[in-house]
Write a structure and sequence with these properties.
The chain is about 30% helix and about 25% strand. It is built from 10 helices and 14 strands. With about 325 residues, it is α+β, with helices and mostly antiparallel strands. The relative contact order is 0.15. The chain folds into 2 domains: about 260 residues, Sandwich (Jelly Rolls); about 70 residues, no CATH class.
Amino acid sequence: MAAVAEYFDVDKSQFWQQIIPSHQPAILRQAVKHWPSVVAAGKSDLLLQEYFAGLESRKEVNTILAHPDTKGRLTYNDTLTGFNFERQKAPVTAVLNELRRIAGKKDALHIAVQSARTDVCLPEFSNQNVMPLLDTDVVPRIWAGNKIVVPAHFDDADNLACVVAGKRRFTLFPPDQVSNLYIGPLDFTPAGAPVSLVDITAPDMTKFPRFEQALEQAQIAELEPGDVLFIPALWWHHVESLSAVNVLINYWWGGSLADDTNKASPFDSLLHTLLTIKQLPEHQRKHWQALFGHFVFHDASDPCSHLPKGCGSVQGELTEPRKEKIVDWLQSQIKHL
């Protein structure tokens, strides 16, 4: 697998003008090494816990517990009717304390805090640990745990993943590798995003033969505390936490994950399309494919170049009143599915 491109001493201008437009993953080495949280983690896990205790609101966050037999891989059960972990709630520092207590013990539970908003559980974190590459209104989230494996999945937003404590390995696949990743049920997922059924750490090439093609396109990132990984929206990423105590802070922007006022996602359209088009005869599906290619993906030309400006057509720039009418109409149509 190819290594993800590395950058050093990246400033905001380079990040937005060079790295983001490349639409490729990038490692920003030691971009947050100055954070007080990273400095505390570099001294000891105890000092990291004490640092977070000084920031914590004591609000409980979503916490995952998995049996030792899972080897920390958070996924489905064998029949895809449920998952191989349980969900509980606990304060962040209580989780960190438990991670320190069970570190090095055989048959210890696998524990993970996932995607907890720091403005809720660690309200002073952003003031003390400033992300210089993004605007201050982008809300960070904390991920903490021991040796956890998150199967390959994608997010609909751009992402900066900042390692505070422990080591992490990311394996990334371009969006077009979806057919080679053997995705599980779209409407029943471990954490909201579709996930690959392939165990990347020990792939069964007999069961998943096309995965070999995905590996040929994969990129790998090995991260230390202070390192930051840029993950472009829709890139599949498999995440391995490699230490007894791992903490990561991430920032999403530019997608539904980052927008608390509008949770609508293009993924919703995919599900709707599966309900309305998938069962049609092949010749009709091909016709709809042509319509989507023209009106949505602009395969050959601008679909509204021949229309008067300001006409408010759905394939052009919509006026707000027209948009509201279309949303109301779509809602009424969904009721008939």
